[in-house]
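Amino acid chain:
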Amino acid sequence: MQIHGIVRPSTRRRFFAKLVLVGKCLEFTGTRNKAGYGFVDLMVRGKRFPILAHRLAWAIAHDCEIPSDRIICHRCDNPSCCNPKHLYLGTPATNAADKVRAGRQVSTLRGVLGEAHPASKYSNSQRAEAVGGRKVGESYQSISAAIGVPADTVGAWWRAHVARSLP
C-alpha cells in the first residue's frame, strides 16, 4: 500500500501522541502484535488498513514511500521503537544478517544448552545436579524440590542426556 500522501494530519497527531521516550528509543504505546511491533490503522477511502508503526514512522520522517522490495529494520533491536534514527531501509537479507549478528536467529542457537543460551532460566550446575540425581535413581519430584526446577524440566534434561549418550 502507498503511504506517502495519504496520512492525514489527525492520524499523525494520534500516532505521535502514542510515542514515549524510553532511553534513546521512541516506543509506540498503542496496539502491538505478539512480536512487540506496534501497528496503526490507516483509513483510506473509508477502508481501514493496518500498518506497522515503525514503517509509518519511517515514511513520515523521510516523506516518501517504502520501496516494495525493501523493509524497515531496527538498529536498536526494539520492535516497538519508532525513532527514525534507529530505523533503516533494508532488505530481507540485511534483516536476516542483523538477526544473526544480534543472536536472535533461532537456528544459530540449536544445540546451545544451559547458561550459554540467552533464554536459559537455569544454571549449568542445576542441570548437572538434576542429571546426577537421575543417574543414582532419584525421582523427578525429589530433584525438582531440591534444586528449585520444575519436574518436567528435570525430565527434559534427563531425556536429552540419555539421547546424547546413545551411539
The longest helix spans residues 151-165. The chain has six helices and six strands.
